[in-house]
Amino acid sequence: TATCLTAIEDAGALNAFVHKTPEIATEQAAAADARIKAGDAPAMCGIPLGIKDLFCTKGVPSQAASRILEGFKPEYESTVTTQLFDAGAVMLGKLNMDEFAMGSSNETSVYGDAVNPWKVDDRNLTPGGSSGGSASAVAADLCLAATGTDTGGSIRQPAAFTGITGLKPTYGRVSRWGVVAFASSLDQAGPMTKDVRDAAIMLQAMCGHDPKDSTSADLAVPDFEAALTGDIKGKVIGIPKEYRMDGMPAEIAKLWEDGTAMLKDAGAVIKDISLPHTKYALPAYYVIAPAEASSNLARYDGVRFGHRAKLDAGDGITEMYEKTRAEGFGHEVQRRVMVGTYVLSAGFYDAYYNRARRVRALIKRDFDNVFADGVDAILTPTTPSAAFGLGEMTDADPIQMYLNDVFTVTVNLAGLPGIAVPTGTDASGLPLGLQLIGRPWEEADLLNVAYSLE
Ligand code: GLN
After folding, report:
1. Of all atoms in ligand 1, which is nearest to the CA of residue 336?
2. Is the CB of 152 under 6 A from ligand 1?
3. For 125-153, how does the pLDDT look when each residue is reduced to its tens digit (9 = 90+)?
4. Which residues act catalytically here (predicted)?
5. pTM of this structure
6. Which residue among 100, 109, 401, 405 has the greatest number of ligand 1 atoms within 8 angstroms of its CB, and so is best to mutate?
7. Is the four-CA dihedral 38, 43, 48, 53 of positive or negative sign?
């Protein structure tokens, strides 16, 4: 913990930690020490973590990187952080992210950009998003692991951009209670770690049934670390042809081929599969996610949380809402609220929102079919490229940014577990990762296949 606290001070340029909690860390570390001395030490005991700013942490600023939550200190602790702290983990502070987890580059944060510790010719690169601070902090050794959340790729894409491991569990495996909501039917928290074993250990502490989240699954939790046997003989790995996108860079295609060969050498059976509705995933996601976001973000009204605009004489409650939301939300959040409100409006609900929901069901059915056909896991690239430069993709062309999520959003739409594992580098030495998608609730199996890719 002490080493990490010093490293954080020295790494201010990464802008990964947006709120530091050295007093809490020191106190928790001392308590962990006492537990270790007393012989009562679970695996997470004394492990210094960074916590994404989307998690509510009691008495500690939890702003979802938004101006609208300025000054908000929750009265309660999220279930995930409660469980981690009960297991003896230590909180070093809160981590940078895209505002309300909307973004793929950590450039929509009220705290400014988080920076990737990997550089090419001193060019500042994005750590990805929305869990950009988490990825940057783990990759730069500012903490041993971090929490992330993933609505459309926000754990896996930043993991790939920074050369770390990121796991999005099955929807319902990890409680969403106390995690600021973006798109409730897609959001899922997960571990961002240095390797697969750490992901298994951290998931164990984070997950499990929570009566406070009605979508949390009441299922037994297996021993994830014990599942890491390295034996994947006879496992069937699907390679979906629809992920071989036009114009895929040669280095991504090569990475994918190398990963396939590695799994084959380890005894897996490689099978070509088809997920025919893949090309509709991105448009469906960018209807459903904003729709749910516009509803979830209606609660930020200047009354219940955080920021309230200064009002002029004669302003009524409508002006208070309008001014507060206009200055409290950044551009990308406003864009999502507008898109979401539009697709949910009476005249367009069927044409957009209901159609996107039907597409979502078809995407889920594609996966159900290949799993019913005996496929154990699916191997794809995580991202269409390595980390890009900060400021390279502009606010003026959001579609360009959304295309980053092309390989990751299907997993959220289908509620499946997915893991990003670093497996190579591009020509300039930047990390690249592969994604494995598993059967629902089979994180143990998925982690074991991922373990063979390391
Ligand atoms: N990049 C996607 C978006 O902007 C995913 C974000 C996420 O997973 N939280 O919506």
Report:
1. 10
2. yes
3. 999 999 999 999 999 999 999 999 999 99
4. 52, 130, 154
5. 0.98
6. 405
7. negative
Give 204-220 pLDDT, tens digit per residue.
Answer: 999 999 999 999 999 99
Architecture of domain 2-229: Alpha-Beta Complex (3.90)
Q: Two tokens at 225?
A: 């670390």
Separation of alpha carbons 32 and 196, rounded Å: 24
Query: What number of other Cβ atoms are within 10 A of residue 337's Cβ?
Result: 22
Alpha-carbon span 237 to 374, nearest angstrom: 9
Domain range annotation of the chain: 2-229, 280-353
Distance CA 233, CA 265 (A): 9
The finding on whether 412 has its CB within 6 A of some atom of ligand 1 is no
Give the catalytic positions in this structure: 52, 130, 154
Name the amino acid, one letter, at 387.
A
Rounded to whole angstroms, the Cα distance separating 373 from 90 reads 43
The enclosing H or E element of 355 equals helix 355-372
Helices (H), 207-314: 250-265, 281-296
Q: How far apart are CA 158 and CA 112, in angstroms?
A: 16
